[in-house]
């Protein structure tokens, strides 16, 4: 993945990381403010409904006090007692006495007009009759509610039901059990409050916040506009902003950390493994005596999406340290199966050499991996060479078990880059190997006056003494090829014959090599410089 793309993605994520907490902060502050306002309105509605219900029951209690005493109707004593109770009662404005269905007197005095008892609007319990929206006869003032128990009734001023609320930021409407509006505060929209119903609830409708509370048949609705929330929202927003800012910093820090991780070599390598960006090139292995291509070493290449290729020496050590080498190896084996399956089924004399990490030999995973992934593609076991570096075989006891089992199954095992590690004759004698590959650094020193120029002859003699096949790596000149042939080296690979190439080119190279061999042409004498 291009660094510019990672940086762009990180910038976008950082922007979103800063924006998201801000949006959540605003949403949380607004939601909190809304809940606070809903709870406030519910408290107001509950007070109003409770006061309405209690006002009527308290008035009824007062009237029962009169009904429990004996008076000569409408005498001064009778009227005086009614007047005393009005003075002492908080919700009662006037008390009247009814006899034979006619109002005889009130706490104001005897009633000369013929006022008949009305049919009640509703009843409360077994003995309370109630009316709403009744105009007082004496004062002719605003309509009042009437409570009657037995022969006594009382006028209740509905304004007193809401006057104690004294909250100019909320409008309140109280509805009697018969559905008639009894009292209001701050001019509520009664059409809206009618739609809210009579069940206890709270919420928002349009641009209005509401709360409805019901008690004893009485219903109170308290409403306020949503634009009144802005003051509360502004106060709460600063509290939430502290947490939002902290969350923003945390998210941005995580984005930066993740971006750095992705931009690091290990991060980019992990992405490459996940996206399967690895391809395999094949370096032909040549039989020196005939010039025939007898196989290839599979070499992994990291091909980025932009087409650039990363050299193995730049990522293989990191892959081995991080544990990513195993999935990379699996991808290499899968590619070999796809690329060469048909070729190897047609030419059973060919073999492919595959490099494995130390852990693969130590755990024996190499055997199951190759068997499952290549066996199903038609590869014979004797067509597969398992290669490990000297450092990959340092755990001799475990390596010996794996190598022995590999050879039992028909695989050949070679030690790669010999001479660059810690090998000795005793070390080689303890491992049941099939082949030894001489590192390019020793091939480069052939016929040169350097400190290592004589080492290659000793390596060749050592391999012969152990009956190991010998493959020389990095052969780049005719002189090197002739030296190796003269010293009994069987196989080689290097640019003198061919560079590592994609599968299609390698298949074509093999077919050409076989055709030349069939025609009796020796590759060494015709090889390209």
TrEMBL record:
Signal sequence residues: none
Spans traversing the lipid bilayer: 238-256
PROSITE patterns: EAL
Topology within the bilayer: Multi-pass membrane protein
Domain of life: Bacteria
Domain EAL: 262-514
Protein name in UniProt: cyclic-guanylate-specific phosphodiesterase
Lineage: Bacteria, Pseudomonadati, Pseudomonadota, Alphaproteobacteria, Hyphomicrobiales
């Amino acid at each position: 993945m291009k660094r510019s793309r990672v940086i762009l993605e990180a910038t976008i994520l950082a922007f979103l990381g800063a924006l998201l907490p801000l949006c959540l902060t605003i949403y949380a502050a607004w939601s909190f403010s809304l809940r606070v306002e809903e709870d406030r309105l519910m408290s107001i509605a509950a007070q109003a409904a409770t006061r309405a219900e209690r006002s009527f029951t308290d008035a009824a209690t007062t009237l029962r006090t009169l009904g429990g005493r004996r008076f000569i109707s409408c005498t001064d004593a009778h009227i005086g007692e009614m007047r005393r109770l009005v003075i002492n009662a908080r919700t009662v404005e006037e008390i009247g006495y009814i006899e034979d269905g006619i109002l005889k007197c009130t706490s104001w005095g005897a009633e000369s007009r013929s006022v008949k008892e009305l049919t009640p609007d509703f009843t409360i319990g077994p003995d309370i009759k109630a009316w709403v929206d009744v105009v007082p006869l004496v004062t002719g003032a605003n309509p009042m509610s009437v409570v009657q128990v037995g022969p006594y009734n009382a006028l209740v001023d509905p304004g007193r039901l809401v006057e104690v609320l004294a909250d100019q930021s909320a409008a309140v409407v109280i509805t009697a059990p018969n559905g008639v509006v009894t009292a209001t505060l701050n001019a509520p929209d009664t059409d809206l409050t009618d739609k809210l119903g009579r069940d206890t609830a709270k919420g928002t409708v349009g641009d209005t916040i509401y709360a409805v509370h019901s008690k004893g048949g009485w219903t109170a609705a308290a409403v306020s506009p949503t634009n009144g929330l802005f003051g509360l929202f502004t106060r709460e927003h600063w509290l939430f902003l502290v947490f939002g800012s902290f969350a923003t910093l945390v998210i941005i820090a995580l984005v930066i950390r993740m971006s750095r991780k992705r931009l690091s070599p290990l991060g980019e390598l992990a992405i490459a493994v996940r996206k399967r960006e690895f391809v395999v090139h094949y370096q032909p292995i040549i039989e020196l005596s005939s010039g025939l291509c007898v196989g290839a070493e599979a070499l992994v290449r990291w091909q980025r999406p932009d087409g650039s290729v990363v050299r193995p020496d730049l990522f293989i050590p990191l892959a081995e340290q991080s544990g990513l080498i195993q999935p990379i190896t699996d991808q290499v084996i899968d590619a070999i199966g796809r690329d060469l399956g048909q070729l190897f089924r047609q030419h059973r004399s060919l073999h492919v050499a595959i490099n494995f990490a130390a852990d693969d030999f130590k755990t024996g995973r190499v055997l199951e991996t190759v068997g499952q992934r290549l066996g199903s593609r038609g590869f014979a076991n004797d067509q597969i060479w398992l290669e490990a570096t000297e450092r990959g075989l340092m755990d001799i006891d475990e390596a010996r078990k794996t190598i022995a089992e590999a050879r039992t199954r028909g695989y050949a095992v070679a030690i790669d880059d010999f001479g660059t590690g810690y090998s000795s004759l005793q070390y080689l004698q303890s491992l049941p190997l099939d082949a030894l590959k001489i590192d390019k650094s020793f091939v480069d020193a052939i016929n040169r006056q350097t400190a290592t120029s004589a080492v290659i002859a000793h390596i060749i003699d050592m391999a012969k003494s152990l009956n190991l096949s010998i493959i020389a790596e990095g052969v780049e000149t005719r002189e090197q090829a002739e030296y190796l042939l003269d010293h009994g080296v069987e196989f080689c690979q290097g640019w003198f014959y061919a560079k590592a190439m994609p599968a299609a080119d390698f298949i074509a190279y093999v077919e050409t090599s076989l055709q030349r061999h069939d025609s009796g042409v020796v590759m060494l004498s015709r090889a390209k410089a």
